[in-house]
Specification:
The protein is mostly helical. It is built from 4 helices and 2 strands. Strands 1-2 form a two-stranded antiparallel sheet. The protein is globular and about 55 Å long.
């Protein structure tokens, strides 16, 4: 038997990556590595929610749970961009 876990992923990964991409133009001073650091910081502040298909997760969420996820995502992205930006500024000063 061959096991294949390629479909299994953290539900928040795509949301975080899309959130970073949508904000990236507001941070022209950030490098590719800094954006990767932002992703790591943000994902480490969110709970792990592993799924095979994102649509399955969305189907079972209530509207309040969706709003909580959106709010949490905004908070962690704000924190992560600030955290990485501050660390980079200290490194270059």
């Amino acid at each position: 038997m061959v096991l294949n876990f390629e479909q299994v992923h953290n539900y928040y990964e795509r949301l975080v990556f899309e959130g970073i991409a949508s904000r990236s133009e507001a941070y022209p001073q950030f490098t590719i590595d800094m954006f990767a650091d932002v992703a790591c910081v943000a994902l480490n502040r969110l709970p792990a929610r592993y799924v095979r298909h994102d649509v399955d997760m969305m189907f079972y969420l209530t509207e309040p749970e969706r709003r909580t996820i959106e709010s949490s995502l905004e908070e962690v992205l704000d924190f992560a961009f600030g955290f990485v930006g501050e660390r980079a500024a200290k490194a270059f000063s």
